[in-house]
Design brief:
5-stranded mixed β-barrel; alpha+beta; elongated
Length: about 250
C-alpha cells in the first residue's frame, strides 16, 4: 500500500476500541482524509500529542481501502486558544463539522486548506462567534452547495445597494423584486443590511487587520439563514450546535 506525507489540520478525533482513534484530517495534498491511529490513546504514544483537535501537523500515512493509517505525526502549530478556551473550542468545532460534512473525501482542495488554516488562526485573536460564521459562509462556497447571496438566482442580476430583495432557499438564494413577483411564495425579506454583511463575510480577507462590525440583528439573521440551510441539507441537527447551546 502506498505511503504518503501530508500537511494536515485535525478536524475530528473519535475513540476506537480500547487504545486507538479514528482521526479526520484536512490535508493540503489530498483534501479530507479519515485515518486510523493505532495505540494513540495510550499515554506514552508518540502520536497522542500531535493528534489533538485543531492541531496543524505533518503526518505520514499509509493508504487503505476504508481508512488510511497514521504512521508518524509531528506538530507544526498548536492553537492555544482553541485548545484552552471552551467558547472558541465550541465555535471551532462548528467550523470543523462543516468541513467534515460538506467536503468530499480524498479530493484535493488546497484553497480550502489555506482558508481553514486562516480561520483556525483567527480564533486566537478575534471574536469566535463571528470567526465561525464568516468561516462557514466562505467554506460553503467550495462545496457546490452554495446559495446565491449577491445576485438574483433567477435573472442573474447583481443586486444594487439598498435594493429591496427577497431570499428563497429552495430557489437557490436571492431574488430581485421582479423575479420574486413571479414566484409562488415562501420567500423571506432580504434586507439591504443583511445583503451587505454577507457580501462582506464572503469577501473577508483573513490576512488583513480589518475589523468587521455587525449589528446584532444582522448577526442573528445571518446565523439563522446559514444554520437552517446546513441542517436542511444534512437532514439532522449539527452536533456542534448542541454543544454551543449548553454554554
Amino acid at each position: 500500500m502506498a505511503r504518503y506525507t501530508a500537511h494536515a489540520l485535525v478536524i475530528g478525533v473519535h475513540p476506537w476500541g480500547d487504545a486507538d482513534k479514528v482521526v479526520e484530517l484536512f490535508t493540503a495534498e489530498k483534501g479530507r482524509v479519515r485515518a486510523a491511529a493505532f495505540g494513540s490513546r495510550r499515554p506514552k504514544s508518540a502520536l497522542a500529542a500531535a493528534l489533538q483537535l485543531f492541531n496543524e501537523i505533518e503526518v505520514s500515512l499509509t493508504e487503505g481501502q476504508r481508512l488510511d493509517t497514521v504512521r508518524t505525526a509531528s506538530i507544526l502549530h498548536h492553537p492555544k486558544k482553541l485548545s484552552e478556551d471552551i467558547i472558541a473550542m465550541a465555535y471551532g468545532s462548528f467550523v470543523a463539522e462543516c468541513v467534515s460534512e460538506f467536503l468530499p473525501e480524498k479530493q484535493p482542495e488546497p484553497h480550502v486548506y489555506d482558508l481553514l488554516r486562516a480561520v483556525f488562526s483567527a480564533f486566537e485573536t478575534r471574536n469566535p462567534r463571528i470567526v465561525a460564521l464568516l468561516g462557514a459562509y466562505q467554506l460553503m462556497e467550495f462545496t457546490g452547495l452554495q446559495l446565491s447571496y449577491e445576485r438574483c438566482v433567477r435573472c442573474g442580476r447583481l443586486l444594487e445597494d439598498d435594493e429591496e430583495a427577497f431570499f428563497l432557499e429552495n430557489a437557490g438564494g436571492a431574488l430581485c423584486l421582479d423575479c420574486h413577483a413571479q414566484e409562488g411564495g415562501g420567500a423571506q425579506p432580504y434586507p439591504a443590511a443583511l445583503q451587505r454583511f454577507i457580501a462582506a463575510a464572503l469577501a473577508f480577507d483573513w490576512q488583513s487587520g480589518e475589523k468587521l462590525t455587525i449589528a446584532t440583528k444582522d448577526l442573528l439573521a445571518a446565523e439563522t439563514m446559514l444554520i437552517g440551510y446546513l441542517q436542511r441539507l444534512l437532514g439532522h441537527p449539527l452536533r456542534s450546535l448542541s454543544f454551543l447551546q449548553k454554554l
